[in-house]
Design goal:
six-stranded mixed β-sheet, 43% helix, 354 residues
Length: 354
């Protein structure tokens, strides 16, 4: 009896398992499933891959667009400059005619006897401003500042609002800063009593000062007065004395209101962003100055060795850059320790633009 019961039980289990796991399907449906399942799986993978690829392409395009927009914003930021409202340059030639002499190659540095050195050496000097044999540079600087005071007295008293005027002095001479400030207060300081800021800067920083100034957007609404002076007691070869004054306006200053008193701004000073490689410096200078798409009338050189001069000309030919004239400041005004190098170009550009 037990054997029969076990047999019945296993028979029932067999039929139960068969009914649970085996079903009757047609051959057509079975074969269709064999082909349809891989196809549907492949189609799903393909569409999903296409979806991911499309999203990736869109993301890359948007990313590149954001990069280009950011790049253009940085370029626009770097192309901000300073309008030149007024400029004065004093050299061995005097306080007038410097641009004409430079353009016409009439301003050439020559060898002559300097009273302090006792030797003949190529140099230029401000003999009209004080006794060159004296070591009292403060007397000579006072004469220079008095000259600027007389030249700009009317303009400062009628137009300039001292609420947005900054003053920076770069004095390359053996004069203590407290004495320089005293001389300022005795001359131009009488007209500009309360500038927003007044600083006596290290002349070594003069070549990068414009970049530092333009890095602050707050200066776009303000005016800047820069005075540069280079004086010596005994010159070295090709060294030149000079003094300059620049009145600059930021991008957002309403310069039209200043035109009746100041010259219309033929010149705009841009950053140069000096790089380790000369070619990179040239590329960046051309980039920052290309905002107004102006024609370049001239290229000036200061502190450039002859080998570098040749390298510059070769690179200009390589990038197909053309300029009407090339000016060697060292061979005319003289090497001035890179003080106020932008002032020279201002005079040249003003003459060419007139």
């Amino acid at each position: 009896m037990g054997y029969f019961a076990d047999r019945v039980y296993f028979t029932w289990l067999y039929h139960y398992s068969y009914t649970q796991f085996f079903y009757d399907i047609s051959d057509i449906l079975f074969i269709s499933g064999l082909f349809a399942f891989p196809f549907v799986s492949w189609l799903f993978i393909f569409l999903y891959g296409a979806f991911l690829y499309g999203n990736r392409v869109i993301h890359i395009e948007q990313w590149n667009l954001c990069i280009e927009e950011r790049k253009q914003k940085l370029i626009n930021y770097g192309q901000r400059g300073l309008y030149v409202l007024g400029f004065s340059l004093i050299t061995e030639q005097g306080d007038t005619g410097n641009a004409n002499a430079l353009i016409n190659n009439d301003f050439i540095i020559t060898s002559k006897l300097h009273p302090n050195s006792g030797i003949v050496i190529p140099h230029t000097s401000l003999s009209a401003f004080g006794d060159m044999t004296s070591d009292r540079f403060d007397d000579r600087l006072k004469l220079i500042l008095t000259h600027f005071e007389k030249e700009y007295k009317t303009k400062f008293s009628t137009v300039l609002d001292q609420k947005n005027l900054h003053v920076r002095l770069f004095i390359e001479a053996e004069i203590p800063n407290d004495k320089i400030k005293t001389l300022w207060m005795m001359t131009l300081g009488k007209m500009i009593s309360y500038p927003v800021s007044f600083e006596i800067e290290n002349p070594v920083n003069s070549s990068t000062f414009i970049e530092t100034w333009l890095d602050d957007r707050a200066h776009d609404d303000e005016l800047l007065l820069v005075i540069n002076t280079h004086l010596f007691s005994i010159p070295i070869k090709n060294e030149g004395e000079f003094a300059s004054m620049l009145i600059l306006a930021g991008e957002n200053v309403k310069i039209e209101q200043l035109f009746p008193i100041f010259n219309s701004p033929l010149i705009k000073v841009h950053r140069s962003e000096q790089k380790a490689k000369l070619t990179k410096t040239i590329d960046h200078a051309l980039l920052w100055g290309s905002g107004n798409d102006n024609y370049y009338g001239g290229v000036w050189y200061n502190g450039i060795l002859p080998d570098l001069n040749t390298e510059i000309l070769n690179y200009f030919n390589q990038i197909q850059f053309e300029a009407k004239d090339h000016f060697n400041i060292d061979g005319s005004i003289g090497y001035g320790w890179q003080v106020t190098t932008c002032c020279f170009s201002c005079f040249v550009c003003a003459k060419q633009g007139a």
